[in-house]
Amino acid sequence: MALRKIVLQGDECLKKKCRVVTDFNSRLHILLDDMAETLLDSGGVGLAAPQVGILRRVCVVMNEDDEIIELINPEIVATEGEQTGLEGCLSVPGKYGVVTRPYVVRVRAQDRNGDFFEVEDEGLTARCFCHEIEHLDGHLFVEHTDHLLSDEELAEYIRRQEEEEEQE
Ligand code: NI
Q: How far apart are the C-alpha atoms of 133 and 143, rounded to whole Å?
């Protein structure tokens, strides 16, 4: 396994529509292993292939049990509810915005051997499914907000969130 370099906002790779994966071969497996290692190293919760310069419909998401979910040719098949919260991206380091997403997201995808499966999750992982799958069509989370938070606004937002959690 090897760490891959994560490209940053402005790179052409992040604006392209990625191609469908048709060969579930060792090359794909190496990419998936490298992406998992790169994600763990980055401290993020999701990574899409175009972020490491590969224009294929592949992404990895870490759920809240710290399990890596590999999604090949993923599609969102159902959503429920709504959540509004902070979102960031490894390709837009240090920048956060408040983005509204569905609260529950169900995804149909293929695994590394080409077998179809469905996975459903909520909260942060559901947010991550939406974010990563959008990367495969050349979209970034910043398109969902007209305002990225300054350091002061970010600190204030986190402080208020913590206050609300204490009151619950
Ligand atoms: Ni991202």
A: 14
Q: Does domain 12-167 have CATH number 3.90.45.10?
A: yes
Q: How far is the CA of 42 from the centre of ligand 1 (A)?
A: 12
Q: Is the pLDDT of residue 29 over 80?
A: yes
Where residue 160 falls (left for φ over 0; alpha for ψ -120 to 50; beta otherwise) is alpha
Residues with CB under 5 A from ligand 1 (ion): 89
Domain definitions of the chain by residue range? 12-167
0.90 exceeded by the pTM?
Answer: yes
Which one is predicted more confidently, 20 or 147?
20
User: 88 C-alpha to center of ligand 1: Å?
Assistant: 7
Span from the CA of 44 to the centroid of ligand 1 (angstroms)? 9
